[in-house]
Design goal:
Elements lengths: L6 E2 L2 E2 L7 H6 L14 H11 L4 H14 L4 H8 L3 H14 L15 H13 L12 H12 L5 H10 L11
Antiparallel strand pairs: 1-2
Helix pairs in contact: 2-3, 3-4, 3-5, 4-5, 6-7
């Protein structure tokens, strides 16, 4: 019996996942196990990626390595505290794009010009010790940023920039 591949909006699957009926017909069993295969080179790349400082990227690589070792989607999902569908999605990406598909990507969109301007000003105004500087509220910071850079930033966006800005002493949970 010829093996058919599933067809989706992106074309046929590249790793030959069998239809459930056909899998049972050829003596297989549907257990959540993956049908992907990886070359020795890909395994080396996956091991390198598994050591990445980006945890999500590393988890995706580890999940694929475990898939190649025969782990089921449910078992991997339990180990990484994710949904089994996420594991299947990672396998699908690996099957289509290889290891490169598992790497973290920068989201498309315009440069965060206002955020960069805000962070540069915030770094300057909050640099002096706490005892030597005035109390800064979001509206006062927004006005100071507009005055120094000419870029107007909303209070809500400024709040997000402060939380995600990764400047020492700025945002929640920093000493």
């Amino acid at each position: 019996m010829p093996i058919k591949t599933k067809q989706d909006s992106h074309g046929p699957s590249t790793y030959g996942r069998l239809w459930r009926r056909e899998l049972l017909d050829v003596g297989g069993h549907v257990s959540g196990r993956s049908w992907i295969v990886g070359t020795a080179e890909q395994r080396v790349e996956l091991r390198d990626l598994a050591g990445s400082s980006d945890r999500e990227e590393a988890d995706r690589a580890r999940a694929i390595l475990l898939s190649l070792d025969g782990w089921t989607s449910d078992r991997i999902a339990l180990a990484f505290c994710v949904q089994p569908d996420s594991v299947r999605h990672w396998r699908w990406i690996f099957g289509r794009e290889g290891v490169a598909g598992l790497r973290a990507r920068t989201a498309p969109g315009p440069d965060p010009v206002k955020a960069r301007a805000a962070l540069s000003v915030i770094e300057e105004v909050l640099a002096p010790g706490v005892s030597e500087r005035p109390n800064w509220t979001l509206p006062r910071l927004a006005d100071e940023i507009a005055k120094r850079t000419g870029k107007r930033i909303s209070k809500s966006r400024l709040s997000v920039v402060l939380k995600k800005g990764a400047l020492p002493g700025v945002g929640r949970g920093t000493p």
